[in-house]
């Protein structure tokens, strides 16, 4: 299943923009990003974008 939050990151959106798009709090976005980054083994948005775009991972 695709993550709308990671899709927002790959689209270049800020946490606030992702929260507004999904009608959730910015804190919820930050928490989701933190958990997803842990699962992916990345530490930055740039690393996450690279994995999703260049390795065909499901956002």
Description:
68% of the residues lie in helices and 0% in strands. It has four helices and no strands. It has helices at residues 4-10, 15-22, 26-40, 45-54. Helix 1 crosses helix 2. The mean pLDDT is 90.
* Chain-averaged pLDDT: 90
* Biggest beta sheet attributes: none
Distance between the termini: 8 Å
The level of helicity is 55-70%
The stretches of 5 or more residues where confidence is low (pLDDT under 50) are: none
Please state the structural category.
mainly alpha
List the secondary-structure elements in sequence, H or E.
HHHH
**Share in β-strands:** under 5%
Tally the helices. Answer: 4
The gyration radius over C-alpha positions equals: 11 Å
Strand tally is 0
Overall, the morphology is globular
Helix and strand topology:
Elements lengths: L3 H7 L4 H8 L3 H15 L4 H10 L5
Helix pairs in contact: 1-2, 2-3
Keywords: DNA-binding, Transcription, Transcription regulation
Pfam families: GerE
Protein name: Response regulator transcription factor
Notable features of this structure?
mainly alpha; 68% helix; DNA-binding; transcription regulation
């Amino acid at each position: 299943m695709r993550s709308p939050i990671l899709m927002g990151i790959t689209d270049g959106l800020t946490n606030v923009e992702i929260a507004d798009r999904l009608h959730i709090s910015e804190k919820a976005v930050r928490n989701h990003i933190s958990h997803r980054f842990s699962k992916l083994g990345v530490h930055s948005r740039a690393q996450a974008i690279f994995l999703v775009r260049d390795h065909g991972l499901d956002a």
